[in-house]
Design a protein that fits this description.
The chain is built from twelve helices and ten strands. By secondary structure, the protein is an alpha/beta fold. It folds into two domains: about 240 residues, Phosphoenolpyruvate-binding domains (TIM Barrel); about 55 residues, no CATH class. An eight-stranded parallel barrel has the order 1-2-3-4-5-6-7-8, surrounded by five helices. A two-stranded antiparallel ribbon has the order 9-10. The protein is globular and about 65 Å long.
């Protein structure tokens, strides 16, 4: 993994709510994202920028990843969102989140604007990351170009609500699987996003599950992308955090086995050049080593190696 903080649970809080932002500082989410887009009413968007800056300056968010979702590049608010928040509190922000990205040009615009602010403030250019939401048919079609558009990029995020509307699926609950379809309606989109993310060294993040009281449904939703290899999921309520953290954490037994495979492979192959070795009744080779390394690397990233 690149030097990016864990994103198992990504808690969205309205940009206009100082109370909810203060509460977020006490919760166990890996990421707290201040939302100037969908979670903030149009009449409150301008004023919410100052609310976010005050929260960032006032509260201790510890080691969490702190992000701000700005409005899209096709809106009247985008550039002022970036300028007013980043100039005043960019030193407290890990990344900006760009919604509704549909081309590499969207990423280039935000990247260059952030870079200008970093230069003006005397900060290292590139220190503020960028995460991008894929939530339209065009965005999904252009995901490869988007994912490779800037070295500032940290993550691709699946946006089920707007993508459902863009595709004309007729869903009314964000993140809800369609029980009328035998397969998973989102499998293609998940894999498309995941491949683009991994090909460019980025995190892959699942979108929210809006029925926050339905924890069984949330668990099913989280498990399906955790199994695919996604790194985390957006949450919209504190009750969702612990479940999502568990879903995107490696099983300790699986992590321990991965480390065992790596140790056995190193010991057996050092100086001998052997291509395969035996471990717990199984033949393991270089492909197995790579699989184990991926699991172990993720476990170390999440702190399992220190347990």
């Amino acid at each position: 993994m690149r030097a990016i903080k864990p994103h198992r649970s990504c808690l969205s809080v309205p940009g206009s709510s100082a109370r909810m932002q203060a509460k977020a500082a006490t919760l166990e989410a890996d990421q707290v994202l201040f939302d100037l887009e969908d979670a903030t009413a149009p009449s409150e968007k301008v004023g919410a920028r100052a609310v976010i800056v005050e929260s960032l300056r006032t509260h201790d968010f510890g080691q969490r990843c702190i992000s701000v979702r700005v409005n899209g590049t096709d809106t009247e608010w985008c550039y002022r969102d970036i300028v007013e928040v980043v100039e005043a509190a960019g030193d407290r922000i890990e990344s900006l989140i760009l919604p509704k990205a549909e081309s590499s040009a969207d990423v280039h615009f935000v990247d260059r604007l952030i870079g200008q602010i970093e230069l003006a403030r005397g900060w290292e250019v590139g220190r503020i990351g960028l995460e991008v939401l894929i939530e339209s048919s065009r965005g999904l079609q252009q995901v490869d170009a988007i994912a490779s558009a800037s070295p500032r990029l940290h993550a691709l995020i699946f946006g089920p609500g707007d993508l459902s509307a863009s595709l004309g699926l007729g869903q009314l609950t964000i993140g809800m699987p369609d029980s009328g379809y035998e397969g998973d309606i989102w499998h293609f989109a998940f894999m498309r996003l995941l491949v683009a993310a991994r090909a460019n060294g980025l995190l892959a993040i699942d979108g929210p599950y809006a029925a926050f009281a339905d924890l069984d449904g949330l668990e099913r939703s989280a498990r399906r992308t955790a199994v695919l290899g996604f790194d985390g999921k957006w949450v919209i309520h504190p009750t969702q955090i612990a479940l999502v953290n568990r879903a995107y954490s490696p099983d300790p037994a699986v992590y321990a086995r991965a480390e065992g495979i790596l140790a056995a492979y190193r010991q057996a192959t050092e100086g001998e050049g052997r291509g395969a070795v035996r471990f717990e009744g199984e033949m393991i080779d270089e492909a197995t080593r790579k699989m184990a390394e991926a699991v172990a690397r993720r476990g170390r990233w999440l702190g399992l190696g220190g347990q």
